[in-house]
Amino acid sequence: MVNEKHPLRAASELAQAGRTAEAIDCLEAALSLTRSDKERPADASLLARTAGLHCEVTGRLPQASRYYEEAIATADPDPLLLIALASVLWRSGRADSARSSLASAESMAQSLSDADALKMVANIRAEWASDDR
């Protein structure tokens, strides 16, 4: 059930029906159509971000990190994407990479004067400080 015109809608319907793996496949199919384009469509980042979220929710953390990295590469600067990636990397046991991603998120949030993202970074750092990685 890949709706090439509306893959986000199709993926949402699949996920709501409890068919998350098919939702991820739907998003992957849509993304695969954009990967060879030199200038990717504006929604490529949203497709990748959504696929990452579905992977994260289902515990497919390595796949989630790949989708988040793809979203970061195709998106306008967004510290929230870097925060999501940092979280997945941390839970995957990749503490150094997680810290690096979180530092990038903090730097970006500072340059954008994004107080909410800066607060999220501080909260995550406090949470991680209690973890011995």
Brief characterization of the structure:
Helices cover 72% and strands 0% of the residues. It has 133 residues and is an all-alpha fold.
Provide an overview of this structure.
The chain is mainly α and 133 residues long. It contains seven helices and no strands.
* Low-confidence residue ranges: none
Strand content: under 5%
- Average pLDDT value? 92
Helix content: over 70%
> N- to C-terminal separation?
42 Å
Q: Strand count, sense and closure of the main sheet?
A: none
Radius of gyration: 15 Å
- Along the chain, the helix and strand elements come as HHHHHHH
Number of E-type strands: 0
> DSSP helix count?
7
Indicate the overall shape: globular
Structural class: mainly alpha
Key traits:
133 residues; mainly alpha; 7 helices; 72% helix; 0% strand; globular
